[in-house]
């Protein structure tokens, strides 16, 4: 019996070592991607945003930027954000908790989001030109790798909608603004050969309450363009800027809304 137990213990230890090695290899690849994303460009020194920089923007965007506190602040070029939350892919699926870390470069523009919802590891990114999604099991095997024009659009649109976490990016020359009404404005962003657009909805205080767009959703191996919405709440001060710390992301489907992502920021650090 002791020999059997020793063999079983050896198998368990070996399995744990394989899992640990796979996880380290996967995380190592992601770390190299982070380094490439966050590498400083020679000309990327944060400038100070003066009030006249807001001239020409739609009125609700001006109101938001004043609320967010960008005037007389240095541009946000690179930052790191930590999150926790819940995620699911279907309304009949149980919510799965996750913890994530996100790196952002507004000079690219781009981001890398790495999340752990055991036993699944997820990496979503836009590198300044193209998007990429990778889903991995314990660092051992890729369950999915998605690198298509639909992913490019979705990843860039995610960057656009998440500018509420790096509000000085609203002033980027890569973005064209189109006024809609007193409480909403459309933004069009172009990076590389990819273009994405969406509508920011503002309240009377100047906060962005909602971001809406059309985004590609994968259904049984093909993509459909559906209505998509991100709701933001609980604005707090972070590094001198007012940003939303909580939110819910949903698909607006004919059969009803599908909430699939709930988040809360747990840390916010400016790098440059």
Automatic annotation (TrEMBL):
InterPro entries: DUF6544. Keywords: Membrane, Transmembrane, Transmembrane helix. The chain crosses the membrane at residues 6-26. This is Uncharacterized protein. The lineage of its organism: Bacteria, Pseudomonadati, Bacteroidota, Bacteroidia, Marinilabiliales.
């Amino acid at each position: 019996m002791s020999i059997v137990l020793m063999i079983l213990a050896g198998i368990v230890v070996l399995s744990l070592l394989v899992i640990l090695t796979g996880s380290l290899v996967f995380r190592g690849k992601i770390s190299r991607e982070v380094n490439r994303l966050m590498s400083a460009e020679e000309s990327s020194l944060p400038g100070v945003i003066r009030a006249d920089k807001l001239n020409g923007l739609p009125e609700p965007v001006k109101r938001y930027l004043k609320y967010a506190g960008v005037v007389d602040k240095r541009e946000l070029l690179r930052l790191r954000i930590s999150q926790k939350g819940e995620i699911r892919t279907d309304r009949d699926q149980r919510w799965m908790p996750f913890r994530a870390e996100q790196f952002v470069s507004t000079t690219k523009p781009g981001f890398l989001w790495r999340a752990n919802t055991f036993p699944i590891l997820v990496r979503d990114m836009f590198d300044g030109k193209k998007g990429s999604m990778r889903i991995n099991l314990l660092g051992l095997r890729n369950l999915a790798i998605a690198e298509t024009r639909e992913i490019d659009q979705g990843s860039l649109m995610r960057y656009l909608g998440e500018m509420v976490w790096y509000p000085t990016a609203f002033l980027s020359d890569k973005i064209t603004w189109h006024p809609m009404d007193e409480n909403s404005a459309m933004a069009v962003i172009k990076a590389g050969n990819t273009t994405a657009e969406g509508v920011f909805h503002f309240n009377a205080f100047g906060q962005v309450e909602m971001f809406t767009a059309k985004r590609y959703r994968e259904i049984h191996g093909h993509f459909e363009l559906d209505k998509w919405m991100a709701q933001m709440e609980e604005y707090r001060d972070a590094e001198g800027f007012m940003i939303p710390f909580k939110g819910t992301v949903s698909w607006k489907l004919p059969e009803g809304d599908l909430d699939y992502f709930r988040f809360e920021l747990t840390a916010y650090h400016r790098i440059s």
